[in-house]
Amino acid sequence: MKPRFSNQRNLAMTLIEVLVVILVLAIAVAMTLPARKANRRHQLAEGCKNNLEEIYYAYQSWANDHNGSFPMKISASNGGTMELAADGDAMTTFQILSNELKTPKYLICPADKSHVAATNFSIGFTAKNISYFVGVDASTNYPQAFLSGDDSFVVNNVRVKSGLLEISTNMAADWYKIPVDWAEERHDACGMIGTVDGEVRETYFYSLRDYLHETGLATNRLAIP
User: Fold this and answer.
1) Of 106, 90, 92, which Cα lies nearest the Cα of 58?
2) pTM recorded for the entire structure
3) pLDDT score of 172
4) Using CA atoms, how far apart are residues 225 and 223, in angstroms rounded to an integer?
């Protein structure tokens, strides 16, 4: 018969081994979390980029049938959305592009938790089904102008609401003081911007100000859904 204290020692060793295994597993999980989070963020950003590329192709296709002009540059009486976009209406422009876009799913950023995808461009389609702004002044005369992008702007620390957002960049040497930033809840305080030349850029607040200045426009007008 083995002594009782030997069994107790074996039991104690077993418990220690179990605790060591649990500790090692906990450390391993903790070490993989940042990588998983980074991978998830990358996937969301790539999904958003793909959406903005599809929107760009839709704009280009529409412009090819309208003498190179986007809907925002053609009067509503002639089938465009000039007046509506200038009033901050983003929804109608995307409805005009519906034949080119094919599906409204491209209008929802994968990282956007405040909007939901629509099933079509007509019945029940509202600004709640759109994550992206419309660049009111976008034209081929300004290749770096903002065509579309995340609508999650913050100006003077206040989340921008639906309507027309006007950001002045005509501030000479003080252009870097433009009081615009990205909201925290989408892309971790980052945003995706699509320009007229077809480039889609991932921007942080400092690069966003640079890009606003580089548009060549004294005032950037954006229709926020």
Assistant:
1) 106
2) 0.82
3) 46
4) 6
